[in-house]
Design a protein that fits this description.
By secondary structure, the protein is mostly helical. Helices cover 81% and strands 0% of the residues.
Length: 117
């Protein structure tokens, strides 16, 4: 019965974090999905599928409210798209233990960057 309430709360928190910080919802979702039994690869893929619509909606809201223009993001889009293609192709080939360690290392790096800026 607890799971019935946990999933919506997690989803709302991921959306709030993503909307406030521009990213980060996946850092909340991945460990939680792992805790609920998904394997490491599935947690990352599922997280992306959850975060994508949230990111699109946040971007639309920021664009409509004039907080950013499409031209601000344009220089980054081709490289980001290339990186996402490469990452999704590598995901199926990478060792789960290495993937877990990379994700943990990235979380630590991000935390240190945020704390000392």
């Amino acid at each position: 019965m607890l799971k019935k309430y946990v999933y919506p709360i997690i989803a709302v928190l991921a959306g709030v974090i993503n909307g406030l910080l521009g990213a980060g919802g996946g850092m909340l979702i991945v460990p939680i999905l792992k805790k609920y039994g998904l394997d490491q690869r599935a947690t990352h893929a599922t997280s992306i599928c959850i975060i994508l619509p949230i990111c699109i909606l946040s971007a639309i809201i920021y664009l409509v409210n004039g907080k950013v223009t499409f031209y601000d993001a344009l220089p980054y889009l081709p490289f980001s798209i290339l990186g996402s293609i490469i990452g999704s192709l590598i995901l199926s080939k990478i060792n789960e233990e290495l993937l877990r360690k990379l994700f943990g290392g990235f979380m630590l790096w991000a935390a240190v960057q945020l704390l000392f800026r």
